[in-house]
Amino acid sequence: MNYKNDWFKWTYDGNAFGARTSTESIFDIEIKPTVRSFKTFKEELLNNTRQIRDTFSEPLDLFFSGGVDSEVILRCHIELKIPINVIIVKYENEYNALDLMHALRICNELNVTPKIIDFNLEKFFENEAYEIWSKGMFLNSGRLPHMKMLEYSDNIPIMGDANPTWFYDRGVWRYLFREVDYSQSVYAKIIGRDAVLDWYQHSPEVLLAHALEEEIITMRSKFGTMDDFEKTKYRLNSRIWPSIKIRPKRVGFEGKLPFGHPMSKPEFMLNFNQTHITFKNTHISFTEEDFFNRMIIK
Fold first, then answer.
1. What residues does each domain of the chain span?
2. Which of 18, 67, 128, 161 has its CB surrounded by the most CB atoms within 10 Å?
3. What is the pLDDT of residues 242-252, one digit of tens each?
């Protein structure tokens, strides 16, 4: 897999870069300290962009959801004048109408011409989702269409998963590694496809630099919630790129439902979850001190 200096591995049952083979499979991660120094979050985002570009000879294809994580990737490429193709997926019944609106707006602002792909979610779940899911027993039905989308890329597919995440637990802010964030990367490994699908974790310097940005330090000094973290993420990114518009976090399958509505996915996706996903997402987390100690060379 493509991690800078091999700093990171996910494992299932001790098998590096493996996949879940049963509902009892154990997910874990391995971290190798490789960092001696790092710069600001923006500088490391740009360095990450250059590093990934230099890793491959093929063109890059960004699956652009319209969310802030993929927007940051696009803005890095634009700022560095590094070519990247932009692919936007449009679901039927306006399931991703709001994200689509932001994706098209941002492309227009940045003078980018995207390739737009029509994708029928319901037919996918009727005909193909289970076959894909069974290859790795993945944790969220919402990840399965993203795996199918790899077929729509002729080059190196890029997705903006595994963005730096902190959460508040019993009086302590902790850095979070979530099993679900590697779902697409696990699938790409299963099918033998070169890809960068957890883009933010390609370089550990990105995570470390993010942790020391003023907004994140201030957040960690207070009691908090995941909502506080999401708001902090937007404040940080919009300071770096003032053109980034703050908007509610969405999952991309809501249709016209209001933000926070309990039916945040179509019924056929919820049914898929209830039928097949009977095990929980593994969360691995570290305190601030442990987080730095694991990645920085002493």
1. 4-295
2. 161
3. 999 987 777 78
